Structures are given as C-alpha cells and as structure tokens.
Amino acid sequence: MEFYYFAAIFTLLFRDFFFVTQGQGEYSFLREATSAPAVSYYDYIVVGGGTAGCPLAATLSNHATVLLLERGGSPYGNPNVTDLSAFGKAISDLSPSSPSQRFVSEDGVINARARVLGGGSCINAGFYSRSPADYAAAAGWDGALVDESYEWVEKMVAFEPKLEQWQSAVRDGLLEAGVRPYNGFTYDHLVGTKIGGTIFDGEGRRHTAADLLSYADPDRLTVLLHASVYKILFTRKGT
Questions:
Q1: pLDDT tens-place string over residues 186-198
Q2: Local structure of 57: helix, strand or coil
C-alpha cells in the first residue's frame, strides 16, 4: 500500500530530472547479466530494481553513471504482470522464471516476494496513496519538495480508478457506518472515506516502478537483468 511512497522518498535526494520518452519495454539500457563485460566502472551501483531501486537509479543517472542490478527479469511482455485480467496469476506461478518467489516466513506463513524489475509493484495490488503531511514534517523534509516528488511518481504510475460494484458497495458502507467526511477521489491522506489511486490504467494495464526508468538518462544508466549479488567488497585507500 505504501510502496510508491517509499520510492518517492528516494527522489527527494536527487533533483533536476531528465525525461526520456521511451516506450515501455523498449529501454535501450536493459541487458542480460550474461552480456556484461568482465570489468566495468560506474559512479553508483544500485542493488535491486524494485520500488526504491528504480526511481533511485533513474534520478542518479541524470548526474552520474549508474549500474542497476536486478535478480529477476523484465515485467514487459509478461501478461501475468501487465494485464489486470490476469491479476494474481504471477503469485501462483511457481516456475523458475516467475516474477514472484514463494517463501515461508519464520512463523510458517506462506508468502511471495518479487523477483522482477519493478519489484512488488509488479505482483501486489495497486492501491496508491500519499503519506500524511505531518509524517514529512516530523522528518524535517521540505513539504513542497515532497509534493513534487509524489507528482513525479504519479505522472507515470497512478490513475483514478473506475469503481466496480463491490468497490462502490464498500464506499457506501463506510459512509453509512459514519466514516466521514467523504473526500471523493484524492491521493492525499485524509480522515474519512476516499477513493485512492490505482496503478492500473483505464485499459487495464499495470504500471510499475519500472516505468519510472523513463526518467533516466539512457546514456548513463545500465540495467542488468538476472543479476544476483552474492558479495560486496569495499576497499579503502589511505588510513
């Protein structure tokens, strides 16, 4: 529910965004890890192309060279990810190439984690909402900058939903139970009942954190798919 909120927080740190008009799945910087050279150099290496890693890599690439490593594949071209009509199929897919990976928690609960560029936004439900304003204030963040960062995300992945009958029934039930005021459709975190955003557009296509890579400078960003990271080595010069 809050995964895009966390992605937006990372954009607070890196400004002056550069927008690249790329078609979904046509990113020139997507490559398989097996095609990587034996040695290469980057200003930044981002491990994990999820809901934080994608916007972080995109914004960093506007001022530096960036390598983004993702252990899964691309979400584009996989209807189990992109199509609302296939909602839930990705989680039930247990194949090695599945965008989700089943695991059992320490307390015995069966769950699934993302294994795909775009992270949890590719397999989870698509409700979008901003955090309460006092959260950002308590953290000492610039409120205007926070709002700009949310808008940056919303341009790519957030949409006003068309309510189905059951959703309308839930809304009406909340209002009848006294959960007021009715705030209508809004991304803001407000007391009462509201209609939040969805990451599925009007044609039933899912939009994920991977779409935020459209903001990247393609000449400075490299994304390696099926790239698992097992060890990170740090070197220190001097004393």
A1: 999 999 999 999 9
A2: helix
Distance CA 16, CA 46 (A): 19
Per-residue DSSP letters for 203-237? TSBB--GGGGGGGS-TTTEEEEES-----------
Smallest CA-to-CA distance from 52 within 140, 141, 114 is with 114
Token digits for 20? 């690249």
Domains of the chain, by residue range, sit at 25-125+205-229, 127-198
What is the model's pLDDT at position 238? Answer: 67
Per-residue pLDDT averaged across 114-123, rounded? Answer: 97
Confidence check: pLDDT of 215 > 70: yes
Q: How far apart are CA 155 and CA 150, in angstroms?
A: 9
- Angle value at C-alpha 198, between 203 and 100, nearest 5 degrees: 90
Residues 6+ apart with CB under 8 A from 162: 202
Are 55 and 8 in contact, with CB atoms under 8 Å apart? yes
Q: Place domain 25-125+205-229 in its CATH homologous superfamily.
A: FAD/NAD(P)-binding domain (3.50.50.60)
Dmax (CA) for the chain in angstroms is 68
Task: Read off the pTM.
Answer: 0.85
**Quick one: tokens of 146?**
């926070």
Q: How far apart are CA 5 and CA 175, in angstroms?
A: 26
